[in-house]
Amino acid sequence: MRQMELSRAFTLMEPGPVVLVTTYDSEKNNIMTISWTMVLDFTPQFAITTGAWNYSYTALRKNRECVIAIPTVDMLDRVVGIGTCSGADTDKFAKFKLTPMPGKVVKAPLIKECLANIECKVIDIVQNYNIVVLEGVLAHANPMRKEKRTIHAVGDGTFIVDGRKLDRREMMASKLPAGL
Amino acid sequence: MRQMELSRAFTLMEPGPVVLVTTYDSEKNNIMTISWTMVLDFTPQFAITTGAWNYSYTALRKNRECVIAIPTVDMLDRVVGIGTCSGADTDKFAKFKLTPMPGKVVKAPLIKECLANIECKVIDIVQNYNIVVLEGVLAHANPMRKEKRTIHAVGDGTFIVDGRKLDRREMMASKLPAGL
After folding, report:
1. Given CA atoms A47, A52, A54, A56 in this order, what sign does their dihedral have?
2. Which of A105, A110, A73, A91 is nearest to A30 (CA)?
3. In this complex, do A41 and B130 lie within 8 Å of one another by their Cβ atoms?
4. A123 at interface of B, judged by CB pairs closer than 8 A
5. A interface mutation test: which of B32, B34, B38, B99 has the most A CBs within 10 A?
6. What is the value of ipTM here, to two decimals?
7. What backbone phi and psi angles, to 5 degrees, belong to A170?
């Protein structure tokens, strides 16, 4: 076993699903691409890492709500495009031909083209680590969608696409919430 | 788009890489399986969600160090096995035929069979959310290993294996740290 660069260690950790996070700042909709996410126990609470370097952060902090939208591999170039321009000077819904749909609970929009959308409230911001704690309040899925493979950012500009699914439900039964 | 069960929303978020976290409690080594992880910016800092429900938590809190080991798909049954028994009554290295190797900085062991290992210090515990903040201090990889595909827990007992890798480095160049 050889030592590797510590600065690349995060590329081993990050490969979760890339998500799009929409906000509404009382004037306009915006979207950011986020791959720094974590679930908090078997709950609809999520943590995301973001901060003032993202234009969306102001809206997130002020209006304290957002939508987490789950894109799939056919949307990769849009996902990367969204992550490399700013809502400060770009209408990302228009630029990337995405369709905002009204949520039921929050004012931030759902993204019609995505596999699923989760309406969320901001319940806390852990300032020291730029961790925003979200509480999912309503979730939406698009079961008609054929492409279901999500994408996982490695963090170095490459992305891993979902491959095979393996089933270990029986082996894990004792550890899963009932009825999952 | 149809509403889906809120209780399943976390299954959309979780698919990050499943990791093994080793600890040493001054008497013995232990391992836990964790898929609730997040990177914190382009740094070697990581957040994991764990708590007193994991036997390893006491060692993590007391000795304030651990190793994050990255398993691959050929190790799935061991990863699930580790996650479904307790260090309270099981020597998991022996039971799952894994080889502990000494780290250079921390007393928690590396796992020889894994693709990579990251030695970590616990730098904070955000009690409200059971978030443990880790600082990676040394990383190790195993470049000779043929199987490199990691596994992503969906959270319902199924696992997604890494598929194709797509390259968008050029498109993302402006957003990545130099020299990555």
Report:
1. positive
2. A91
3. yes
4. no
5. B38
6. 0.89
7. -65, -45
The predicted pLDDT at position B156 comes to 83
Does residue B155 sit at the A interface (CB-CB below 8 Å)?
Answer: yes
Q: Which residues of B touch A73 (CB under 8 A)?
A: 166
B175 — pLDDT class (breaks 50, 70, 90): confident
More confident residue, B43 or A13: B43
- Judged against a pLDDT cut of 50, whether residue A50 lies above it is answered with yes
Average pLDDT, rounded, for chain B: 87
Closest residue on chain A to B129 (Cα)? A40
Q: Is the pLDDT of residue A3 over 60?
A: no
For residues A59-63, give the mean pLDDT.
Answer: 95
Q: Tell me the pLDDT of chain A averaged across its residues.
A: 87
- H or E element: which one contains A154? none
Q: Is A107 exposed, middle or buried (CB count within 10 Å of its CB: 0-12, 13-18, 19+)?
A: middle
Per-residue HEC secondary structure of chain B comes to CEEECHHHCHHHHCCCECEEEEEECCCCEEEEEECCEEECCCCCEEEEECCCCCCHHHHHHHHCEEEEEECCHHHHHHHHHHHCCCCCCCCHHHHCCCCEECCCCCCCCEECCCCEEEEEEEEEEEHHHCEEEEEEEEEEECCCCCCCCCEEECCCCEEEEEEEEEECHHHHHHHCCCCC
What pLDDT does B19 receive?
Answer: 93
Find chain B residues with C-beta within 8 A of A19's C-beta: 13
User: Are B153 and B82 within 8 A, CB to CB?
Assistant: no
In this complex, do A10 and B124 lie within 8 Å of one another by their Cβ atoms?
no
Q: Please tell me the predicted confidence (pLDDT) of residue B2.
A: 56
CB contact under 8 A, B163 and A141: no
